[in-house]
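Hey, quick one: can you model this chain's 3D structure?
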Amino acid sequence: MVTVGCHVSIAGSIRRSVDRAAALGCDTFQIFSRNPRGWKFRDLDEEVIEAFREKLRASGIDPVIDHMPYLPNLGSPKREVYEKSLTALAAELKRCGMLGIPYLVTHLGSHLGSGIEEGRRRECEAINTALAEAGNGVMLLLENTAGTKNSIGGTFEEIRSIMDGIDDADRIGICFDTCHAFAAGYDLSTVSGFGETVDRFRETIGTRSLRCIHLNDSKGDLDSRLDRHEHIGLGHIREEGFRRILRHKDFRDLPFILETPVDSRRDDAGNIRLVRQLAE
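Sure thing. Here's the predicted structure for all 280 residues.
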């Protein structure tokens, strides 16, 4: 049996996310702990924290994963954006600690034309500062990107360079997004391409760093640099590609989080069912 779930809403209260995940048949799930489209947020109420933790204990769902909001960009050369991004990262790590969430996923953002080395330096500085300020055991998961212009983290080598600049290496892990990897040029749709991708990941980053998989098909073709998620099996990675991923010894025991569309073709529960079928 694979551990599979999806991203669920916290509308109404963060504690409701547990009920929604259970109703969808999730073994694991991902949330935004606050509004992902703004900088401002409210502090977590003690009653809400305890209710979330209690619901989680009763549900048996594990692990829960938090995702950073959309606006922060740790690689930004714009001072105001950088400082707000650093503050947001430290705050989100603290919120995870309060809620008992072990993992926080972050995108590595964009250097906005200032160069990959400058972007890397800012990333490492921000992550080191935020981890120290949070002062808890929450692990920050670096997510690979689709390799869009000026982005950081589109190659395994770029991610490795960020990891090498982190003081507390035990607090850093990897969230591997299948759509992003495929769009960035890592072929997950063929036997040979998948094998080469796994080998390169092992050599560059190491599979011990993997903590979760964002399981998404890709609307864009291989090396398209297009970050557009598709239903499992309906994009260019196809069902056979996902069978290989789900059954591979480096991946099969990890939590799989779906960030697929919800439309007339299929919903979250439908994608979860298909993933379980492909994994059998």
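One thing worth noting: The chain is about 40% helix and 15% strand.
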